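Ex. 9. Protein: TIGR03084 family metal-binding protein.
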Amino acid sequence: MSDLLEALLGDLRAEGDQLWSTVAGLDADGWATPTPAPGWSVATQVAHLAWTDEVAALAARSSTPEGKAAWDEVVLAAMADPTGFVDTAAEEVARLAPEALLARWGKARDELTVALREVPTGEKMPWFGPPMSPTSMGTARFMETWAHALDVYDALDQQAEPTDRIRHVAHLGVRTRDFAYSVHEQQPPAEQFRVQLVSPSGETWAWGPEEATQTVTGSAYDFCLLVTQRVHRDDTDLVATGADAEHWLTIAQAFAGPAGPGREQR
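Predicted structure tokens for TIGR03084 family metal-binding protein:
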């Protein structure tokens, strides 16, 4: 296991712990609080994280006969309802009592950590899109945990202090540029963009060639909100230079699946 993966898993644990501490003391009404995601309560958000962590652990162990059978069962369910199986799973798990839901999520978090550490070096694990390395899966799980936690904090009228852990989200947002174009059935620009962001601690994070004519600058936090569709483009401090860079910011998404409706402008 690489040092990079170990550091990533530590950040994923810290992000999950922060959300855990927020929801652990909620009463039934608190768990039923609607979140910005239409039709999803706080319980649904946590249930989605629990289920996806479980499935990711199954994928990581799919090289064994038992693991392959379990993973194949998930794939068949996805094929039977490709546009609804994720929501269906979240809604089903969300029906658990709060204590049972937290216990299931806690077990899923632990199992995922162990499973990702066990993937042999150089091997990739299957997923609903292209196969992923353990580090890529860990990054994706961090992005989802962070984004869905934001929905919970918003629903409960709480504010989580941004940390430099969001670099994982920013990195994924940059790496998925061409994917965002493909989701919209558009051809991505041949030219690479320069993305230069200021982290919560004040550091500068940069991707892409310095000489690029198409650039994006601004706060890393706003960029992460945008690529997870937690904010409208016009409500960010991001500055795009070049028509292609500006267009990208209107379609950017760091998550798999179809483009969502995004957030309305405040």
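Check your answer against this statement. Strands lie at 194-198, 204-207, 215-219, 239-241.
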